[in-house]
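Question: Hello, beginner here. Any chance you could explain the protein record under this note? Any guidance would be welcome.
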Amino acid sequence: MARAGLTADRLTLAAADLADEVGFDNVTLSALARHFGVKDASLYSHVRNLPDLRTRVALLAGGEMIDRIAAAVADRTGREALTAFADAYRAYALEHPGRYAATRIRLDQVDPALVAASSAPRRTAEVIYGLLRPYGLEEPDLTDAVRLLRSTFHGYCALEASGAFGAPRDVQRSWSRAVDALHTALTHWPREERTDAHE
């Protein structure tokens, strides 16, 4: 491919595709350079280094994922919204394993300017807090609930992708029951009693 056609966006998309093929941890600048038929040095005009490239992939994947989730939950609330959110999350994670793995990196430990230029983190927060608002949760319960959803969805998808579910029980049925259980937990959330911070 022509070197003149390289851009940061094009490299990021190619790296995301490569991540889905070989795994996010196996994406390197050398592998990407080979894909485009250029020397490694040619990439440095567009991305600073490997962490920069991986951050760009994470932001791309995060944007794709939240776009899918937002479309799924639109005009839904409560159990319907939770189910739509969960199903869209799982579908993206299973269809795009490398991209999904990229969304797991800690964005607060990378280039803040690059992160700030992306709308994905803000939109993700808006969608998930919008999902939980009808359950009437406030801080610190809200953060606890977000962590519960994230850990449940991620854990299930990771185990399913690795083939770890060996029992004959249908995996889709177990997923649906898990989402139902989360709805019940959110509906009957044990509120944490608040105390004066100065006490």
